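Structure ticket #2291
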Amino acid sequence: MPEPIKVAITFKLADELVEEVRAVSPRIEILDFPGMTLGRGQDLSEADLAAARIALSKAEVVFGTNTMPMTMFDDATNLKWFQVITAGVDRMARDGLLRRGFTVTKVSGLASVPIAEYCMGTMVMLSKGLHLALRDQLEHKWTFRWSGELRGKTCGIVGMGAIGREVAIRARAFGMRVVATRRRVEPGDSDPDCDALYPFTGLDTLLRESDYVVLCVPLTDETSGLLGAPEFAKMKPTASLVNIARGGVVDQEAMIAALNNGTIASAALDVFDPEPLPADSPLWDMENVIVTPHLSGAVERYGHRATEIFIRNLKHYVAGEPLELVVDPVLAY
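Resolution: structure written out below.
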């Protein structure tokens, strides 16, 4: 019989899902990982830490979060494939894990629809002033306001990937004009879900045209600090920003200044730099800002959906077939 494929699951997964993983092949051996709950900032006992390192030293495949201490991977000398349960791998890129020689796959598309729904929901809130109405409710204030509408407005999507496409489809349903940027755009390229498609270098044009700018790009060296004071100055003073990408894509201080001085009108922010957002950040109290704690992709049954993707890839792996959703170690997505 061929050698067993030793799998370490490094996050809490329901027993029935672990059994589904095990059932993929008689070759699958699930390693004993302590509590299967290791995460960022979590303290483990010395005994558990030692057990985790032993499991990782044996693992050929890891299925789990990329939030565990990166030094743990120093022990993963037999690792050939890491299936991450997130779409973003910027932390792994920053810590050099994408160049360790093992394959990394992600779960792009898993939460695209709920994240797109979040984007549309916050755009509706900003357009209708519902974020202000909620503040009034807490203060028992009856304040009448005229509100706007999304129909006829331009939604600019920075990053026409899986999430960006779902936003585009829903924005179109609201009667919005949709423009988008994509990293690779050849002359004459178009997209069925956009009214205009620009290359990455066309960002300035998108910013000038858009009433709502939605950031959907991964955080890479290329996109770090993508929006700063010069970019905010190109936006309409009536425009709003929606960021579900990463906090580092935006110069946060420049954004706060732009929101304070009327350079842009408002923002809905689900990501920050750093996270959690510090309690003394001015963003908490700004009336023209919606703050949420990185929850746009926290969809129900996330673990089930991630496991479905992992099992599909695990079947490819056992059969010696190419894996899906492989991360490019150079592009970092």
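Closing remark: The two ends are 36 Å apart (CA to CA).
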